[in-house]
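Project standup — Tuesday

K.O.: blocked on the structure for the chain from last sprint. Re-posting the sequence here as requested.
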Amino acid sequence: MCQTDKEQTAREVLRSIALDDARLLAERQRAIDALTLFHADALPDLLEIEKRVTNGVLKERSRIYSDRIKQGALISMTL
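H.V.: unblocked you, prediction finished:
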């Protein structure tokens, strides 16, 4: 499995966690945060999450990250 396939699989798993209503809110937030590690490659995932979730916190978190990525900002979970 090449690196690109591994990253795509990781993004898919994180997206599915963020969209899973059965998971704790904190888990879903961390999944969204973790998607930012993939920078612009995560943009479609963040936009899908923003569109599909009903929780306002998750929707806003996805929107903020996707807006920052669109603006070219460097996003780091450690800052």
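K.O.: great, moving the ticket to review. The mean pLDDT is 92. The first helix runs from residue 3 to 19.
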